[in-house]
Amino acid sequence: GTAVLARSQALMERIEGSSKLELLSDSAADRRSGIVTFAHRSLPSASLHEQLMDQQIICANRGGGVRFSAHFYTEMELLEQAVTAAENCR
What tens digit of pLDDT does each residue of 39-70 get? Predict the structure, then answer.
């Protein structure tokens, strides 16, 4: 419950603060689910998804963007690394 929501909230705030990424999730609705969907501002989502998967970053190509699931066993540090990796995709 709360650990997942804290992670998804932190993840959404990190993405919202990024100049390269755009949060697609409705933060009100997704806060309950622990799923965060976002897009890269200058890269197609299919390409972003492929590059992240190549780096062993598990995500899904869904809803017009890339979806991360912030599970309770996912460390915040790994979520941070995943967002940074997304920002660095070309």
Answer: 999 999 999 999 999 999 989 999 899 998 87
DSSP 25: S
Percent helix / strand / coil, the chain, rounded to 5: 45, 20, 35
Q: Strand 21-23 and strand 65-69: pairing?
A: unpaired
Angstrom distance (rounded) from CA 27 to CA 8: 9
> Which residues sit opposite 43 in a β-bridge?
40
Stated length of the chain: 90
- Tokens coding 10: 């932190």
Name which of 18, 8, 88, 14 is nearest 51 in CA terms: 88
Q: What are φ and ψ of residue 12, in 5° steps? A: -65, -40
DSSP secondary structure letter of residue 66: E
